[in-house]
Write a structure and sequence with these properties.
By secondary structure, the chain is mostly helical. The protein has a domain of about 80 residues. Helix content is about 60%, strand content about 5%. Helix 13 crosses helix 23.
């Protein structure tokens, strides 16, 4: 039972309520400040202030439960964890900064030291430091050491330092990162050494984490991403979605004089047509949002649906407790929420994969009762996996094949062959749209527009798999592509980069996001479902080993996103393995459950907003200024030549593919003569120059 609040000393209850109330006011003030757009205040400072408020709410709550020491350690996790993030470089290759840049940094360092002191004091008071031999007996000295080494090994990416020969800098940052991981482990150990603040299971309906994911990703999309693209791929997906929303695969090519100005990455103007060369699966889903004027909301809705499917899958494979852990981890994952807030296709692929697995598991339960029902559900699962193939071919080919192999392995079960055949047929039917799309745009069902485009611009086979000097972009990718071509050495570095990104981004924990995964590998009790999930993770890692790009610089290691559901399941298994070991040490099960909840809360409420403030907001120079000016009616139907130092996609995404005369048309500023030549192709429309460098604008003769 939970502690009866009426039996607590009145001072505890009063102090807890005051502390929680003050924290709530701090969070509300921070949110209000950001909503008001107070430009004089640093958004990072507001985020840190809110993190302190969250820590006060957590501490106040546990104080009202009569757990004063638990309240102290739990409350410290949030401001001290935020302090660690404050001292971390946020972009490209995140790593601790080695030198303080002012008194604020020194204050953050002092807060981290205070966190360590509090944790050590509580551990000493609980007597947890007196029995290291017992700890080693339970966890094993070799496996415990390996767990610590694995937690440290991927805390700082080697990729940002090896190509430039900065190995000393990398080593020093590894030491600092290791110290921070150690401090966070002390805090978690202190929480586990304390009696649980309550001993009643407080479960939740899966709709709650689904609602949390929908709210968090929609808020991140609205405020941090500003409901606009932030990388070139998203610009192209929006163009393709608008084309498909009109019921067409391509729009008419622009006038000859404007073609150079409107040329863009992964888009082609060929044979009188203008089209994106990317796969149509995600843009077709995004087109529904375009028709409703809410493209930014498609991914958050899909993410919420994915949570429900994940719960159903985990419940049928591992039981209700395992399902609770999976969706808790999912709802607190900055990686998942960031992907859901973006305009990238990965959440659709994830949702379709989970839907297919769910349908197959439901069909297996009824396979002895109804052949028609089993075949129907398997066919629907195949359709889902087939559309995942139309969205992301490699991900779906890998996961779909492994899923088919799992089905085929049970061919002797009732309806086993029927289900396998129905699944395969559904996958072929939906997946065939990829080949029909190829035929419509290239004339060859086996040649995709993307393959042709890359071959024309980079060279034949440049975007292929394997090793060789001709694989990869010709030039201009800088540190994002370590060396020309692709080699085993570069493949290893790319893999290490993805592991480092996963360690940081998946859950956003100070002890490392892979802690529970390592725990499963080291202490877990392997079942068939765990082995199947490990096969998915291994398949994704091995498949991407042979691809030249790591793809981990925007919304985390997105090329590994197909492994996310398997990583969730294995992390839940790892949590159960750790909880079983901790019980042998006398740790109450609810202590580990509450600690896991606090870690998920940190990822959701501290790490995710940090990513929003420090990375996603205006990532790549993409700003909402031009869209806001257009919505205010500033441009009418003019030709708007944009002078900017950002990627031209930051305004080209606003164009309608059919270039209607009643809407403004945005083009890059190419100089007076070139601009005049473009304007001549659109008679009757005024032209103007708009600069995002200085905010200046001026009318030019046009028409």
């Amino acid at each position: 039972m939970a502690t009866n609040i009426s039996t607590l000393p009145p001072g505890h209850v009063r102090a807890g309520r005051l502390l929680a109330g003050a924290g709530a006011l701090a969070v509300l003030a921070a949110v209000g400040t950001l909503l008001a757009g107070a430009g004089a205040l640093d958004a990072k400072a507001v985020w840190f202030f809110a993190s302190c408020g969250i820590g006060a709410i957590v501490a106040g709550y546990f104080l009202t439960e009569g757990a004063a020491r638990f309240a102290l350690v739990a409350g410290m996790l949030f401001p001290a964890g935020a302090a660690q993030l404050w001292l971390t470089r946020p972009l490209w290759f995140p790593a601790p900064r080695l030198r303080p840049e002012g008194p604020v940094d020194l204050l953050m360092g002092a807060l981290i030291v205070l966190q360590a002191a509090v944790a050590l004091a509580v551990l000493h008071r609980q007597g947890a430091l007196r029995h290291p031999r017992r700890l080693l007996q339970v966890f094993g000295p070799f496996r415990a050491t390996l767990f610590l080494l694995l937690s440290l090994a991927f805390s700082v990416s080697l990729m940002g330092y090896l190509p430039r020969g900065y190995l000393m800098s990398w080593g020093l940052r590894m030491i600092v990162a290791g110290g921070m991981i150690g401090i966070n482990m002390l805090s978690i150990a202190a929480l586990l050494s304390l009696p649980p603040p309550f001993t009643r299971h407080r479960g939740f309906h899966p709709l709650i984490p689904a609602g949390v994911v929908l709210t968090a990703s929609a808020a991140l999309s609205w405020f941090a991403f500003e409901r606009i693209p932030h990388v070139e791929d998203e610009v192209v997906y929006l163009f393709q979605a608008r084309t498909l929303a009109r019921g067409a695969l391509a729009a008419p090519a622009p006038p000859e004089a404007a073609r150079e100005a409107l040329a863009y990455y992964l888009m082609e103007q060929r044979d009188g047509l203008w089209f994106a060369v990317t796969s149509p699966g995600w843009p077709a889903a995004l087109a529904a949002g375009v028709r409703l004027g809410l493209p930014w909301l498609v991914n958050p809705l899909l993410a919420a649906l994915a949570v429900l499917f994940a719960y159903g899958v985990a419940r049928r494979l591992g039981g209700p407790d395992r399902a609770d852990i999976v969706v808790l981890l999912m709802a607190g994952s900055p990686w998942f929420i960031g992907a859901a807030a973006s305009l990238m296709p990965h959440v659709l692929t994830l949702t379709l994969t989970l839907a297919a697995w769910f349908l197959l598991l439901v069909g297996r339960q009824g396979e002895a009762a109804s052949r028609r029902r089993a075949a129907t559900l398997a066919g629907l699962a195949g359709l889902a996996m087939g559309w995942a193939f139309v969205t992301r071919q490699l991900d779906a080919a890998l996961i779909g094949t492994l899923t088919g192999a799992w089905l085929l392995a049970g061919w002797r079960r009732p309806n086993g062959l029927v289900r396998t055949a129905a699944y395969s047929l559904g996958a072929l039917l939906a997946g065939s749209f990829h080949f029909l799309h190829n035929r419509a745009l290239t004339g060859d069902i086996l040649l995709s527009p993307l393959q042709r485009h890359v071959a024309d611009n980079w060279g034949k086979g440049a975007n292929g798999y394997g090793f060789g000097p001709g694989i990869g972009p010709p030039e201009g990718w800088g540190a994002l592509d370590m060396a020309p071509g692709h080699s085993p050495t570069e493949a290893i570095v790319n893999t290490l980069q993805n592991l480092s990104a996963l360690q940081l981004e998946m859950f956003g924990w100070g002890v490392g996001s892979l802690a529970l995964f390592w725990a499963m590998l080291l202490w877990g009790r392997w079942r068939r479902a765990d082995a199947a999930m490990l096969a998915v993770v291994a398949g994704v890692v091995v498949a991407l080993f042979f691809y030249w790009f790591s793809g981990s610089f925007y919304i985390g290691p997105r090329y590994w996103f197909a492994a996310f559901p398997a990583l969730l399941y294995l992390s839940a298994s790892g949590y159960e393995a750790l909880a079983a070991r901790l019980k042998r040490l006398g740790v109450h099960g609810y202590s580990s459950g509450v600690t896991l909840f606090l870690l998920a809360l940190f990822g959701l409420l501290v790490f995710t907003p940090w990513r929003g403030v420090e990375k996603y907001h205006r990532f790549g120079g993409y700003r909402a200024d031009i869209r806001q000016a257009m919505e205010a009616g500033l441009f009418d139907n003019r030709l708007v030549f944009v002078d900017t130092d950002a990627d031209p996609g930051s305004f080209l995404y606003l164009n309608d593919p059919w270039l209607p005369a009643e809407r403004p048309l945005f083009l890059p500023d190419m100089g007076p003569e070139a601009n005049a030549a473009v304007a001549a192709a659109f008679p009757g429309r005024a032209a103007m120059l708009f600069s995002t460098r200085t905010g200046r604008e001026s009318a030019q003769s046009g028409g």
